[in-house]
Amino acid sequence: MKGRIVRRCSVLLLGLAMSGAAAAAVEGNATLTTDYVWRGSSQSDGDPAAQAGVKLGSERGWYASVWGSGVSFQPDNGARSEFDVVAGWSGALGQDWALDVNLTRYLYPSSNVDLNWTEINSTLTWQQRYWLQVGVSDDALAGGHTGTYAQLGARLPLGEQWRLEAAVGHYWLASAQADDYLHGQLSAVWKVHGPWELRLTAHDSDTAAKRLFPGNAGSRVEFAVQTAF
């Protein structure tokens, strides 16, 4: 039942995003990173990854986007790429507040096991500096169980070219799948020229994450070159 509800919501959100696509704006982004770390765990087995995305948005706030990255998992399940297909709405809730609500479908087309799963996400932002993200799924991490993820983050500008970003996240997973885990990250970002940035991020996670993702969670450092257009 929950899977059918998620699929229906996905179709509905995608239809709404496309119906509001008049006078649409197109945005893109690209990143080259030494390690693709997501929610405290490496998705590239500690290796570099190339990433890129494109977003189509309307004046009413509806949008659809696709983002992709190279991936590698151990034990090897054949997955070499990840595509996140997103449909949602984002907009201001007043002078200081903004909200983004979307449905995200995580796809791994080359995998020889079923890694695809869907999550409902929402992010509340205050003054473009602080955010609270919450994600809910009835098939978290494609494990067949419910999961809720929450992240609290902050962005601190240091002049025109530098900023610090910090976030702490907690993943509540069904006990039949894994123990809940906690992770954190701290980034220093340097705006080099125009839209080009260099980012250095330190990641860490607790022992529960290390048990769930052996060899790919824990302390690690990631360096990335990123741009938006």
State the gist of this model.
By secondary structure, this protein is mostly beta strands. Helix content is 10%, strand content 56%.
Descriptive report:
10% of the residues lie in helices and 56% in strands. By secondary structure, the chain is mainly beta. It has helices spanning 2-19, 207-212, and strands spanning 25-33, 37-38, 41-42, 49-57, 62-70, 81-92, 97-107, 117-126, 130-137, 147-158, 162-173, 181-193, 196-205, 220-228. The protein starts with a helix and ends with a strand.
Give me the secondary-structure topology.
Blueprint: H1 2-19, E1 25-33, E2 37-38, E3 41-42, E4 49-57, E5 62-70, E6 81-92, E7 97-107, E8 117-126, E9 130-137, E10 147-158, E11 162-173, E12 181-193, E13 196-205, H2 207-212, E14 220-228
Antiparallel strand pairs: 1-4, 1-14, 2-3, 4-5, 5-6, 6-7, 7-8, 8-9, 9-10, 10-11, 11-12, 12-13, 13-14
